[in-house]
Amino acid sequence: MTKIFIIITILLFSFSCSNEINYSGKIINQENLDNINFKNKEYLLTKLGSPSYIDPIENKYFYFTEKNFRKSIFKERQEYSYIFVFNFDENDKIIYSKVYDIKDLQNIENIKFKTDNNLVKRGLIERIFGGVGTQRELPTSP
Question: Concatenated DSSP letters for 41-87?
Fold first, then answer.
């Protein structure tokens, strides 16, 4: 019985001391992080590959990368976590690029833009009955 206990103890110590590095998203090396000033979409795709997300409305590419270091169950830390945003013009030139550090979430600003809601501006009866009973004037011909 003591041999089994010793073997289990040795196994627990040997597995708990192993280092583990986990990557999420794109694996971006230090060379790409140092030279992040790309000029056009073709060069960006050559260097970083396909993006994590493409926004087709605003023509933006998003790249997510994260590196976590784990020594044991109790010792886990996040080395870095970034989101790279690139915005293109109609000629596929990069007109805007921004790097967000996810570890420091307090630096991310929320946009204060709001969409108008025309239903709120209408009265209660109009909201209930909608366009019932409304008449439109037909254009008169000359």
Answer: HHHHHHHH-S-SEEETTTTEEEEEEEEEEESSSS-EEEEEEEEEEEE
